[in-house]
Design brief:
Chain A: It comes from Actinacidiphila acididurans. The complex is a heterodimer of chains A (310) and B (434). With 310 residues, chain A is mostly helical. In chain A, helix 5 runs parallel beside helix 8, helix 5 runs antiparallel to helix 11 and helix 8 runs antiparallel to helix 11. Helices cover 43% and strands 12% of the residues of chain B. Chain B is built from 19 helices and nine strands. In chain B, helix 9 packs across helix 18. Chain B is globular, with a radius of gyration of 24 Å. Chain B starts with 7 loop residues before the first helix and ends with a helix. The chains are: A mainly alpha (310), B alpha/beta (434).
Chain lengths: 310, 434
């Protein structure tokens, strides 16, 4: 069979009109002032609000970064001011004290294996659910949705008991297996929606060429649903990387196996150096920030595509 | 052929996953080292990496391993060290030794079978004559000399009141106050000079300790211990007098503005930066004060909290205790094949050089008899060692309030706000009963 051509990929939304017509609410006729307001007049207000929103989002990030370069006194007495002396050594102190190198490796390993397992299980499941449109498929989809109803905290004690019974308590391997289990409901539901956008004609054409389920999944469904795969990867990567409660309780705090999120609190004491602590926090955020930055455009495309297809 | 099915973003994610797998799989199959057997000892320690005592602890571990060949598998205990250890015991991965403070849940470990009594080991290991009897009593059940010994005390603390003498002079305060009337008058002078008086973390444990220090001004130790343990704040007139004294001081502006919302960290920052003239803080902060780089240690005098007329205490008060950090031996650690390793490690900590290292690095109050003055290089610690003649020591609440501690802090946050004495005592009674 031939590889899927670009023409068969996701239908792109039409380019936005250069001058979009303002929406016309039904009440516009009785509100002359609203009718007079042109898009150009609304522009500065919308722009201002956008900048304000961006500022609100950026403020905590700025606070985190400048705090990483300050002393405790500066953090508490002038929280938003620039550092008087830029304490770059806070980063090396955090790295060395909390043994962040090993912890970041552990986090990367657990997240990577968990992502591979999540996708390995969710993709075939989503493929099957997307191709079947019968009562059983709907029942299974509903069953996956039930997964959202279980609060993680409620699952903590049974999960600890399970890890003990499996003889995987205080190991990274249990997290590698457990995290995908928690991530499957959202992953399967998202991927199913993306895979339902595959044109039936393309599937029939590939089937006529002799493609079986495996080839259909690998060569047709996954490429077309790639924005969805990237979205799921990013969303779950963030969730896996930031997971704390189960990592602390089940994986534990031993320096050779603990994750970055568990290593960070070792910097807390009766007299915590918050500059060092925030420097450590910045270091643990960097890998996911880089991964997200590289993939964010693809994820936005996916979300936009999903929105226009309905 | 590139159909953009593998764009840059996807390749980046793939590279990340593959790299992580490649880097990590070499170590795959490993597990945490708790419950490791053989020639090793498993320790969970409250002195995590960020603690000022972590360096001295690490030195003891390294010297121990070099001397005995026994590897120390040390795991950091975080804020939830009690839960960590209990979960590990339930999972059959109990450590041999826990280095922890005596508080809340750890007070129940002996009854729960997590740890074993150490009375026998104290004599057998030759520590009875070395560790101060007062320190041992604090680690006995009920805090009494005839109680079962729950663990071996190591890190003691003094908890004086810090006075910034430069700021006092600037505000026209000629000497450190010794009575509450003087304190109220001095607070007025400080405020007039634009200086915050007594800063305290009303939202956490620092506020809790200062409250109890004031509240027991008119009560003897035995009665206070009983009230802290069983309740009866409203029904005990002398305790009510102490609570009323607290509200009088609060309403007179003795505490810094917005104390109800402050925490220990904001308290330290405010004092070190010269915004507030007085704070109550423990010896663990001496090292950090010097490290703050503000020179605060050069113009700080350590003394006691002023007492009111008619107080049970003749001199200003400061806390002192040995419930800081000590050694608790688990059932696993007490097994015949493991107890000797535990003995060797614990006795290594009590060697004079080791204790001295902790005194120097972490400003601990030494648990053993002996002269550690030469190790007290920190100026604040040096002052602290001579506090005995200047202060009286009231009851440290930790052991007595036990697991009600967090509930009590919630009540006392209101006390640093606007709560009346009646509301405070009712809240404390309710919090004590749980």
């Amino acid at each position: 069979m031939t590889a899927p051509q670009p023409a068969t990929r996701l239908p792109q939304p039409p380019p936005p009109p250069r001058r979009p017509a303002p929406p016309r609410p039904a009440t516009a006729a009785v509100r002359p002032s609203a009718r007079r307001r042109s898009p150009r007049a609304r522009g500065p207000v919308a722009g201002l609000l956008s900048w304000l929103y961006a500022l609100v989002l950026a403020a905590p990030l700025y606070y985190l970064v400048v705090s990483a370069l300050k002393t405790n006194i500066e953090i508490f007495t002038h929280p938003f001011a620039l550092p008087e002396h830029w304490l770059w050594r806070n980063f090396s102190t955090a790295w060395r004290t909390a043994d962040l190198g090993q912890a970041l490796l552990n986090s990367a390993l657990i997240s990577a294996v968990a992502i591979v397992l999540t996708l390995g299980l969710a993709l075939p499941a989503a493929y099957a659910l997307a191709r079947l449109d019968n009562r059983l498929a709907r029942l299974i989809t509903g069953t996956f949705s039930v997964g959202f109803l279980i609060p993680p905290f409620a699952a903590l004690i049974p999960t600890v008991v399970l890890s003990i019974k499996m003889n995987l308590f205080y190991t990274r391997e249990f997290q590698m297996l457990f995290l995908p289990a928690g991530a499957l409901p959202l992953s399967v539901l998202l991927l199913t929606q993306f895979m339902r956008t595959v044109p039936p004609a393309l599937v029939e054409s590939a089937a006529l060429d002799g493609a079986g389920n495996w080839r259909l999944l690998v060569n047709v469904f996954i490429p077309i649903a790639m924005p969805g795969v990237v979205s799921v990867t990013i969303l779950q990567l963030l969730a896996f990387w930031n997971e704390y409660l189960f990592s602390l309780t089940i994986t534990g705090t031993a320096p050779d196996i603990r994750t970055a999120q568990v290593a960070l609190p070792t910097l807390v004491s009766d007299a915590t150096d918050f500059g060092v602590l925030t420097a450590g926090t910045v270091l643990t955020l960097l890998p996911v920030y880089v991964a997200y930055s590289l993939s964010s455009r693809r994820m936005q495309e996916a979300l936009t595509a999903g929105a226009v297809k309905g | 052929m590139n159909h953009r099915t593998r764009p840059r973003a996807v390749r980046a994610v793939a590279v990340f996953i593959v790299s992580a797998l490649a880097l990590g799989l070499t170590a795959c199959g490993t597990s945490g080292h708790a419950a490791g057997g053989g020639n090793s000892i498993d320790v969970v320690t409250r002195w995590s990496a960020g603690n000022s005592a972590a360096g001295a602890q690490s030195s003891v571990f390294k010297a121990f391993t070099a001397q005995t060949g026994i590897k120390v598998n040390a795991t950091d205990g975080l804020e939830t060290i009690d839960d960590q250890v209990e979960t590990a015991v339930a999972a059959g991965k109990s450590p041999d030794l826990v280095i922890v403070n005596l508080f809340d849940k750890t007070l129940g470990w002996l009854d729960a079978g997590v740890t074993v009594p150490v009375d026998g080991y104290l004599k057998e290991w030759g520590l009875q004559d070395r560790i101060k009897p007062a320190a041992l009593d604090e680690w006995r059940v009920g805090g009494k000399p005839d109680g079962t010994l729950q663990g071996l005390p190591f890190s003691g603390f003094s908890w004086p009141v810090w006075y910034n003498t430069d700021l006092l002079k600037k505000a026209g305060v000629p000497k450190i106050p010794t009575t509450t009337d003087e304190l109220v008058a001095d607070a007025g002078k400080l405020r007039a000079a634009g200086i915050q008086p007594l800063v305290v973390g009303g939202n956490d444990w620092t506020g809790q300790k200062l409250f109890y220090q004031i509240a027991q001004s008119y009560t003897d130790a035995a009665t206070m211990e009983k009230v802290m343990k069983n309740g009866g704040y409203c029904a005990t007139p002398s305790v009510m007098d102490g609570i009323k004294l607290f509200t009088r001081l609060r309403d007179a502006g003795v505490f810094a503005d917005d104390s109800a919302g402050l925490t220990a960290d904001s308290m330290y920052a405010s004092f070190y930066s010269g915004k507030a003239a007085i704070m109550s803080a423990g010896s663990w902060a001496y090292t950090e004060a010097t490290k703050s780089g503000t020179g605060i240690e050069k113009h700080t005098t350590l003394a006691g909290l002023p007492v009111p007329g008619g107080s049970t205490y003749r001199k200003p008060t400061a806390f002192q205790g040995f419930t800081g950090v000590g050694f608790m031996i688990t059932k696993r650690g007490a097994q015949p094949d493991r107890i000797d390793k535990v003995r060797r490690l614990i006795t290594a900590f009590y060697a004079n050089a080791s204790v001295g290292h902790f005194v120097k690095d972490a400003s601990i109050l030494p648990p053993t008899s002996g002269d550690f003055g030469s190790y007290a290089t920190d100026p604040l610690l040096a002052q602290s060692l001579h506090l005995d003649t200047a202060v009286d020591y009231p009851v440290v609440p930790d052991v007595w309030i036990g697991s009600a501690s967090d509930r009590i802090i919630q009540v006392l946050t209101g006390a640093y706000g606007k709560s009346t004495a009646q509301k405070i005592c009712a809240g404390l009674d309710s919090a004590t009963k749980g």
